[in-house]
Amino acid sequence: MHSLTNRRILLGVTGGIAAYKAAELIRRLKDQHADVRVVMTKAAQEFITPLTLQALSGNPVHHSLLDTEAEAAMGHIELAKWADLILIAPASADFIARCHSGMADDLLTTLCLASVAPIALAPAMNQAMWGDAKTQNNMQALEKSGMFVFGPGSGSQACGDIGLGRMLEATDIAARCAQLFHSEKLSGKHIVITAGPTREALDPVRYISNHSSGKMGFALASAAIDAGARVTLIAGPVNLVTPERVTRIDIISALDMHAASLKACEDADIFIASAAVADYRAADIAEQKIKKSGDEIQLTLVKNPDIVASIAALKNKPFCVGFAAETQNLEEYAKGKLQRKNLDMIIANDVANTAIGFNSDNNAVTVFTSQSQKEFPQCSKQLLAQQLLSHIHQAL
Ligand code: C5P
Question: Is the CB of 306 within 6 Å of ligand 1?
Fold first, then answer.
């Protein structure tokens, strides 16, 4: 379970001998699948090079507030908005004092003021500096303002002193960061979602498809990211923007969606099949455009694989959720599919009602498991997606 999956951590490194531990800290944060960007103060660069931290984080290191090139790539306000957490490690006595006084004379202090993300400090300094009343007053005020404080630890120091002031070990700091996000419902789970229609070619210019917009699947992907999951979205041809942090795989046909789903489900915890998969495809796709001839034309169609059923038949099957879009006998048909496809849950909606379902921005559904039934009244697909993910979380 990786609680930092997809979490964006802005690591601020300030000047002190413990700055070398920032390299290890980046590794430990990335082990937990966090996305890390580093901001260094001028003094920090005397202790460890930006190049080292750039190589480890996989992102350019930011260090200057007034660098036009860096601002053009990702401006400081954008960076402040990007972060889910600002972690300052090591946090020097000087940085703590400047942060407490509300200074904004370098990039890191400016980001601390400009961001609404939580801020965590991992102090590191000589034991006498840590014990000094001014540092203690600054720390208490920052903690009172809502900042998290990790450490410091006690022990022998680089200067030869023994006492409080050592930066906590990287694994400990990474674990404390994870703890901050732990309450997120689907933290660290890999969720695979199919969405939209599939398109079954008849010849180079024609195809069979349906009216699915993909909106429900995309809303589920976005809500799953907000709940802390890692999301793979396997999308048919749709006209929608990929939600941030989602890994999107575009496919055209049911066979492509089937192959992509099997691959993505090798390590999935949850599979949600919201795609409207074409039940049949042409037995043979004509190599050339089919020419107009008599009054009638015969097409031979063959059955497509049932994607959700084949995922549900896997030995290490994820929690499988299907959709049932029906125009009549909603409960009977949905329960039949739940059983026949060996699903853990089925989300049923009445597509005869044009105010909801296909292509609409709203939806209303009834969710069945083998033991339960729950109604979700009409609301936006975004809100419904959040409610459905909570329901899935409870059923896991
Ligand atoms: O059988 P029906 O198409 O109504 O079942 C709907 C559910 O099965 C949906 O979750 C849909 O995504 C999934 N399905 C699938 N592969 C198919 C047909 C449907 O995964 N070939």
Answer: yes
Q: Which CATH class is domain 190-395?
A: alpha beta
Q: CATH says 8-179 is which class?
A: alpha beta
**Cα 201 to ligand 1 centroid, rounded to whole Å:** 19
Alpha carbon distance 32, 179 (integer Å): 12
d(CA 367, CA 347): 4
**Distance of alpha carbon 291 from alpha carbon 25, whole angstroms:** 65
pTM: 0.80
| Closest C-alpha to ligand 1, atom 2 | 324
Is the peptide bond between 152 and the residue preceding it cis, with omega within 30 degrees of 0? yes
Sequence ranges of the chain with CATH classification 3.40.50.1950? 8-179
Site of tokens 């300052």: 88
278 CA closest ligand 1 atom index: 21
Catalytic residue among 99, 112, 159, 177: 159
Atom of ligand 1 nearest to the CA of 272: 10
H/E stretch holding 370 reads none
Helix extents (H) in the chain: 21-31, 50-57, 68-73, 76-82, 93-100, 107-114, 127-131, 133-144, 170-181, 215-226, 254-264, 307-312, 330-340, 381-395
Residues of the chain within CATH 3.40.50.10300 domain(s) are 190-395
Is residue 123 within 8 Å of 165, Cβ to Cβ?
A: yes
Pocket test for ligand 1, best of 323, 328, 339 (most atoms within 8 A of CB): 323
Annotated catalytic residue 159: yes
Tens of pLDDT, residue by residue over 308-356, are 999 999 999 999 999 998 889 999 999 999 999 999 999 999 888 777 7
Closest CA to ligand 1's atom 17: 306
